[in-house]
Design a protein that fits this description.
single chain, alpha+beta, Aminopeptidase
Length: 413
């Protein structure tokens, strides 16, 4: 039997040994790097109640663990709690023994007991977590932009480098953006401190009417060992709360053309290519017949729904009055949840009556993506991911689950 509990400070070094072996591609297996991680996580375990390490024990031996997070998210202009999990690691000697399954089951159940409505993670393998009921979120798009492809008419004179003294203003700037964008996790103060104290990152900000309106953090990445003039500018985070802010940041980037080969930007904004005067990336590849490669895309953050009543109760919908029964098949937890929704006078309510002239069946992963807004109902129907009592109900159900935008998440964990 597996015991899962919060790690003591003395157990963290053993967990770091497991993590170092599990993440060989990103973890340095050196004494100094391990010592830094141990000290960092001991400090976190003692002083940060929103990030905690948990371990899996069998017969008193630590054989795996994970890092649990507590977030707040803008969900359709409502602030809701989100549980996050990262750094899931299993001892090399205990692979294929369902340790990760036990860890994720604990993560799901404890958040369910705490009435946390949404769970989130970044998958090491999407297929692994899809089977656990986590649905795909919005894809990430990576652009390699020529500086001259950006606008130059922004007010660059209102941009300056910022430091720790602007921490609160940067914090407010980010959370203002988050309050307007579905899916965004609100920034926590330690995250902003970590950004400002990273010696490898530069942070610039645009001021509008003497208020910090937009900012960008970036690094320079050398492209050649023999040509020191060949560098890319890599944007780590770009937040803008006005068109003037975006134009000013563009103007700054455009002016770096003498020093920068390409600007690398990761964004979940699917419309971003409209910003660019030349959207082509660095590959010069073409997709038949005449489509120029503009960016690469990847599947990343995944979500699982826990307490949907917090998300759906009272939601305004453009749908006719109706009753809907939804059967959500959860293969991982080996159960089927039955939800009853009623639309009355343009509002959605959770119903306790087992009735529904419209009946819907789908799996937990698809349901989670649907409720996050990363896929719409009609698409799930076209793909055969959902069964309904009659095809004529597709339009009604699409209206019920319609969202203004896909979720965007800029928080890494």
């Amino acid at each position: 039997m597996t015991e899962i509990r919060k790690l003591t400070l003395e157990e963290i070094s053993s967990f770091i040994d497991i993590v170092t072996n599990a993440y060989t591609g990103i973890m340095e297996n050196t004494k100094d790097s391990k010592e830094r991680l141990i000290n960092y996580y001991k400090d976190t375990q003692e002083n940060n109640n929103t990030v905690q390490l948990y371990g899996a024990f069998r017969n008193g031996k630590l054989i795996g663990g994970m890092r649990l997070h507590s977030f707040e998210m803008n969900y359709e202009n409502k602030k809701v709690k989100v549980g996050g999990v990262g750094l899931v690691a299993v001892d090399l000697l205990h692979k294929k023994e369902k340790v990760a399954k036990d860890l994720i089951t604990y993560f799901i159940k404890t958040n369910e007991e705490a009435n946390i409505p949404i769970l989130a993670l970044y998958p090491f393998r999407p297929d692994f977590y899809l089977k656990m009921g986590f649905g795909y979120g919005t894809k990430m798009n990576q652009y390699h932009i020529l500086p001259d492809a950006l606008a130059s008419e922004g007010k660059k004179e209102h941009i300056r480098f910022v430091g720790n003294e602007e921490s609160e203003q940067l914090f407010n700037c980010f959370n203002t953006f988050a309050s307007r964008q579905h899916g965004m996790m609100y920034k926590q103060s330690f995250e902003m401190n970590r950004l400002l104290n990273d010696p490898g990152k530069r942070v610039i900000a645009f001021y509008k009417d003497q208020v910090l309106d937009s900012y960008m953090s970036f690094t320079f990445k050398k492209m050649s060992d023999t040509n020191f003039c060949l560098n890319n500018l890599v944007i780590d985070e770009m937040i803008y709360n006005s068109p003037e802010g975006l134009l000013a940041l563009q103007s700054f980037l455009q002016s770096q053309g003498d020093q920068v080969n390409r600007i690398v930007l990761n964004t979940q904004d699917e419309s971003f290519y409209h910003v660019l005067q030349d959207p082509r990336n660095h590959t010069n590849e073409m997709i038949p017949s005449v489509y120029h490669e503009s960016h690469t895309s990847g599947v990343g953050i995944m979500y699982r729904m826990n307490d949907v009543s917090q998300l759906l109760e009272g939601k305004y919908v453009e749908a006719q009055a109706c009753n809907v029964k939804i059967s959500v098949i959860d293969m991982f937890m080996k159960e089927t949840q039955e939800l009853y929704l009623s639309v009355k006078e343009g509002q959605l309510f959770m119903s306790k009556h087992e009735e529904g002239e419209i009946q819907v069946t789908l799996d937990m992963a698809s349901f989670s993506s649907l409720l996050m807004g990363s896929v719409d109902f009609s698409a799930l129907y076209r793909y055969g991911k959902v069964q309904i009592s009659a095809p004529l109900h597709v339009e009604v159900l699409s209206s019920i689950f319609k969202m203004d935008s896909k979720p965007i998440c800029m928080t890494l964990f």
